[in-house]
Amino acid sequence: MSLDPATVKRIAQLARIRVTDDQVAPLQSQLNGILGWIEQLQEVNVDGVAPLTGAADMALRMREDRVTDGGIAEKVLANAPDRAGEFFAVPKVVE
Amino acid sequence: MSYTVAGAEGEWEIVCGLEVHAQVTSQAKLFSGASTEFGAEPNSQVSFVDAGFPGMLPVINAECVAQAVRTGLGLDAQINLVSKFDRKNYFYADLPQGYQISQLYHPIVGAGHVEIEVEGETRRIGVTRLHLEQDAGKSLHDQDPSRSFIDLNRSGVALMEIVSEPDIRSPEEAGAYLRKLRSILRYLGTCDGNMEEGSMRADVNVSVRKHGEPFRTRCEVKNVNSIRYVMHAVEVEARRQVDVWESGGEVRQETRLYDNVRGETRSMRSKENAHDYRYFPDPDLLPLVLEEAWVAELKTHLPELPDAKRARFVSQYGLSPYDAAVLVAEQATAVFFESVAHGRDAKAAANWVMGDLFGALNRTGRTIEDSPVSAAALGEMLDLMADNTINGRIAKDVFEAMVETGDMPGAIVEARGLRQVTDTGAIDAAIEAVIAANGDKVEQYRGGKEKLFGFFVGQVMKAMAGKGNPALVNEALKTRLAA
Amino acid sequence: MTSSLTELSIAAASEALRARKFSARELTQAHVDAIAALDSQLNAFITQTPELALAGADQADAALSRGDAGKLAGIPLGIKDLFCTTGVRTTAASRILGHFVPPYESTVTANLLRDGAVFLGKTNLDEFAMGSSNESSAFGPVTNPWSPPGKALVPGGSSGGSAAAVSAGLAMGATGTDTGGSIRQPASLCGIAGMKPTYGRCSRYGVVAFASSLDHPGPFGRSVADCATLLGSMAGFDPKDSTSADRAVPDFAAACARGVKGLRIGVPREYRQDGMAQEIDALWEQGLAWLRDAGATVVDVSLPHTKYGLAAYYIVAPAEASSNLARYDGVRFGLRGQTNGDLDDLYELTRAEGFGEEVQRRILIGTYVLSAGYYDAYYTRAQKVRALILRDFTEAFGQVDALLTPTTPNAAFAQGEKVDDPVTMYLNDVFTVPADLAGIPAMSVPAGLDGAGLPLGLQVMGRPFDEETVFAVGAAIEKSAGFTARPRLRAGV
Ligand SMILES: [Mg+2]
Ligand SMILES: [Zn+2]
């Protein structure tokens, strides 16, 4: 499985990273280098093996339903690159 | 299954499934301790977790899990003792983490069903699954000419996504399914069902086909926020698809938007490109494992649900299935009815609740929860009728006074002297006066025109200001006219 | 006096502080001075906080004189700039967080502060902890203190700033995070000890996430005992992290003195790689001989899927990272790209400007392996290989109490030497990645020098939540190795 230039652009768009036309070719070769190397996993016999998502061998712990947070609008907004009063602001979204 | 869309080439059948997003009733959010209360100041109910700050981690709210399980039990569904959370990745201004935590591969609730009744026919609509997920924040587009504003108060609020099978065949069935589902959720206390505040929203999947055909391509109409709109969206989207097929076109699988002003659906092309959510197990969370005993315990505390209550109302109170259905649609109504009916004539109780009380609530724009007439008051009024303190006609007046003043019926009857007259002397006197004043009609009656009897009853009651005991008046009048 | 203060072990410093042989302020000042003198050469710190450090030292002095000082009172540490620290800029060595000031404290640093530790500043790292050479930092590369004159070597990565600072005597210890080897590999390349505990032992709350299922916070120290002391403070159950283990924290420092008599030590034959430097092989043999002499039994074991760990890691880690780093979008915090365009323009410019090359590369790989049509071939398969790697370890630990291997296939290399080929760079982590995939505790102990005089480490791996045995074995090697060499660039020289 190797990437063509269109796929590189599509992935970059999915990841919301601007890739200029002259960046596509070098990226394509780097990514294909990595993906080609990863291909070695095809050698492994994984028949009947359950995928392992993480190393923590436990069940999910639950917390009780109590309001313990919030009421910190100023702190939440303090790092915002653009804000309008109590809101975060972004370029207008047209639906 | 009689509903069809008429086309030039014949009849088309609607195939519809609904994805309902129901906000879980809880104090705090699904993965953070911020409040879920509606209508707070912008960004005031936001933790760093909800705003997707670096290093912040989700911790699940036990009550949200319990609510999902209760709902699953209420839908007679499979409860999955092991479920898992996945990330649905996409970029949007009101999605702070860049992903929504949801359950794609292993939902907490599996297959169940909802029974609906349309035009006297009962149908079972399959529920495919129910899963827990986070809500996103809210974008405001009309506050500024060049910018959209983001409020994250809703970000992280727990939702149950309830997905139906494509079993719905008409707009009416879609409406009935939603009403029934909302009723069940409200009975369970797991969602308040308030569509105006956005606590219930539906995505409507519609396709059409000719009878006996396999499914054709479907479209998803997103975020329709009232039952009426859902019914209308099903109708107009089906109509549109029939027109596309019949004009030689092909329905494209896509996401569409329902425009309630123009009464149409239209393509959301902006959301079409590059739909690839890259779901994968959320590595910040572990499998959600439920104890069977815990689920069983929740089950023993479930309230009686609408279908069971309706059946009981029919058998216990002798109500018609229709009346029973009306009374159980809202839990508060059912509770009200039962408290009025307790130890009394249940049919009379049902008639008063569905007739006069519903009428009064409608007129005054109130709900049963803030009814001016309490169940105790209505019950007392039925008692006053049963022991002949007032008759049915006076009862109507007393009831109106109860609606107006909120007073108890006994007090109204005393204060206004509405007690029914059972004194035969007073009745006889009134009869004598009526006979004396209507000699000609007495002659006609006695000459065989028995229809006039009603006229005499009316006149006597009128003379008694409506307070005569109808049975006594009838009896005395019959005797006197026969003499 | 000043130079000897930067040479002390944590235990010795603590004892001297309690005996009031010197004050916490003097100890901190010595380190502040060392940073001032040396960091222009090393670039180990992204943000220095001398005033905060001295204020912390004064508090420690007050507590010491009151007699209610915590176990790390007055001990000056470096904090990897991936741990959020209230009111102190936290950058993850990325332009995208270049001015981010968190209003909250990570649990690990809060635990250290609770015990009286003093923070000297935030140490350099590979951007978002993605790297093995500390060359991908937006704040410039870190120079290994062992670099010979005129040649800049890498300190390893991603926690290169922490490792360099501890090695050079700029800090008595430091925090790090290990996702594919980011504590053990720089520890090895800088001649110090570094411990990656069991997954779930140290909370991830407040640590800028790289790959959630693989990120392990842990300590650096110049000795095994110092690592044990620091881990004892950093570790512990945290209800704010759903993957945190609800287990008591053992006395790790005491475990260092246990010895290895009667322990069975496994030698995984798959770690013997073609082309591995002969000196590394020899050091490994030497390590096994030391353990045998100390009373342990050495046993050959097999970890058949070792070879595939790295490839599985380079699917799992980028996949998780592509999602974890989606929140850096220029909306709520961090850098925002300048645009008159729409929201997608804003996202794309912000992320193109804010993320460096390696981070972008990994986000793209991660996005690709999760995308429709490729998920099963890449991601699911990698998770299955991950399960096989855990199974290998589980079976090995049925036969032995700990495993001994080299930490890295090579000593420190020159800056710029491997940056052009990502895969060659990734091969640095071939020995360290399996323990991250399996979540088992593993540490690197300095054991010797190569022909060029550069430090080499040995890696000890243990059963889940049995850090005590890992420390016992590590301490035994440390004792036999008698590693006393010090880097050329160091405080007080
Ligand atoms: Mg949907
Ligand atoms: Zn949903």
Structural class category of chain C: alpha/beta
For the biggest sheet of chain B, the summary is:
9 strands, mixed
Q: What's the average pLDDT of chain B? A: 94
Could you say how many structural domains of chain B there are in total? 3
Note the beta-strand portion of chain C: 5-15%
Order of helices and strands of chain C: HHHEHEHEHEHEEHHEHEHHHHEHHEEH
Strands of chain B, count: 17
Radius of gyration of chain C: 21 Å
What does the radius of gyration of chain B come to? Answer: 30 Å
Distance from first to last alpha carbon of chain C:
13 Å
Query: How many angstroms separate the termini of chain B?
Result: 63 Å
SS element count, helices of chain C: 17
Instruction: Show the largest interface.
Output: A-C, 54 and 73 residues
Q: In which order are the strands of the major sheet of chain C placed?
A: 1-3-2-4-6-5-10-11-9-7-8
**Which cofactors or ions or other ligands sit in this model?**
magnesium ion, zinc ion
> What kind of sheet is the major sheet of chain C?
11 strands, mixed
CATH arch. level architecture of the domain at 2-258 and 470-481 in chain C = Alpha-Beta Complex
Number of strands of chain C: 11
At the first level of CATH, the class of the domain at 2-258 and 470-481 in chain C is Alpha Beta
Shape of chain B: elongated
Walk me through the structure.
The complex is a heterotrimer of chains A (95), B (483) and C (493). Helices cover 35% and strands 9% of the residues of chain A. Chain A has 95 residues and is an alpha+beta fold. Chain A has a domain at 5-42: Histone, subunit A, CATH 1.10.20. In chain B, helix 9 runs antiparallel to helix 10, helix 12 (424-437) crosses helix 15 and helix 14 packs across helix 15 (470-482). Chain B folds into three domains: 4-298, no CATH class; 304-416, no CATH class; 424-482, Arc Repressor Mutant, subunit A. The model of chain B has no long low-confidence stretch (mean pLDDT 94). Chain B is of the alpha+beta class. Chain B is elongated, with a radius of gyration of 30 Å. Chain C has 493 residues and is an alpha/beta fold. Chain C has 17 helices and eleven strands. Chain C has an eleven-stranded mixed beta sheet, with helices on both faces. In chain C, strand 10 (442-449) and strand 11 (455-462) form a beta hairpin. The relative contact order of chain C is 0.14. The model of chain C has no long low-confidence stretch (mean pLDDT 96). Chains A and C meet through helix 1, helix 2 and strand 3 of A and helix 11, helix 12, helix 13, helix 14 and helix 15 of C. Strand 1 of chain A pairs parallel with strand 3 of chain B, so a sheet runs across the interface. The complex binds magnesium ion and zinc ion. Magnesium ion binds at residues 19, 203 of chain B.
